[in-house]
Amino acid sequence: MTSPKSSALTGLGLSLPVLAAPMAGGATTPAMVIAAARAGAMGFLAAGYKSPQNLAAEIATVREASIPFGVNVFVPNPVPITAQEYRRYADALRSEADRFGLTLPADPVDDDDAFDDKIDVLLADPVPVVSFTFGLPPKRVITSLRRAGTVVAQTVTALSEARAAADAGADILVVQAVVAGGHSGTFTPDRLPEAVPLTDLVARIGAETGLPVIAAGGLATAEAVSGVLDAGAIAAAVGTVLLRADESAASATHRAALIDPARTETVLTRAFTGRPARGLRNSFIDRYEEIAPLGYPAIHHLTSPLRKAAAAAGDADLVHLWAGTGYRHARDESTAAILTALAG
């Protein structure tokens, strides 16, 4: 990473401009983060859906390896849902839940993923890098983390978000294209980001803000990585291509779906969580997307028991098979080998 804009990461000793992106829900493991760093890259632990105690334990595990690493945090950006809309969708899903003997939450469950408590963990035991997604944290949080010696990265999907992040004091922007797997980091989940090619988005945002940019979304080949670096990114973040890595904890059902020839496309859906996310198309999406309401995190909590039961049973048609458009490049190799190959 020799770009003059890369000063925010130069002290971390990275030699590969490819990072292991955080994948909440279990796929990212401390072993993956450690393997990425030992290859000369860096990985991010995913704080999403973990308790502050579990996050602290993962940080402690990675810190023992004496490596550079980051932690990604979901910023509370709730999408309200009425009780009537929630129950309408819950009623529609009841037959699916009955197959597994499940009782789905009767009323909306809204929480902030223990945001303040996780920030307390990160201030009490500062880590090299903290990234945020789903929204912009309060400026006081960014200021406190930077004072603690942490580099702050903000996920953005549009120029307007990038400007807001720069004004709030972010050190780095993680520019995410609409083709990225998993949840979109958009600040406005009711309005999808414009489908701008990642190289164009990187160049535009980098030039407008003057901040270093990490590119993310659909990057699964050395050529794609080279393209975003040529566009001005200091690094590329990859996730989907690591789902079948040796160190990944993605479910066997998810791993198998990535190489299933019957899975021919990815789509953006809100059917699983009430917030737009990209995954492999399956019958759950086909059946429920048109009637699925926006409503995060309530819809996430509604479908979570069903998704977990289906994954355990090997029923890929009821699972959120998060994947970006480069999913066919996911390989059964070590994290180190995959990242090294992508660096070219």
Automatic annotation (TrEMBL):
<keyword id="KW-0285">Flavoprotein</keyword>
<dbReference type="GO" id="GO:0018580">
    <property type="term" value="F:nitronate monooxygenase activity"/>
</dbReference>
<feature type="signal peptide">
    <location>
        <begin position="1"/>
        <end position="20"/>
    </location>
</feature>
<dbReference type="Pfam" id="PF03060">
    <property type="entry name" value="NMO"/>
</dbReference>
<dbReference type="InterPro" id="IPR004136">
    <property type="entry name" value="NMO"/>
</dbReference>
<keyword id="KW-0503">Monooxygenase</keyword>
<dbReference type="InterPro" id="IPR013785">
    <property type="entry name" value="Aldolase_TIM"/>
</dbReference>
<comment type="similarity">
    <text>Belongs to the nitronate monooxygenase family. NMO class I subfamily.</text>
</comment>
<keyword id="KW-0288">FMN</keyword>
<protein>
    <recommendedName>
        <fullName>Propionate 3-nitronate monooxygenase</fullName>
    </recommendedName>
</protein>
<keyword id="KW-0560">Oxidoreductase</keyword>
<dbReference type="GO" id="GO:0009636">
    <property type="term" value="P:response to toxic substance"/>
</dbReference>
<keyword id="KW-0732">Signal</keyword>
<dbReference type="GO" id="GO:0051213">
    <property type="term" value="F:dioxygenase activity"/>
</dbReference>
<keyword id="KW-0216">Detoxification</keyword>
<keyword id="KW-0223">Dioxygenase</keyword>
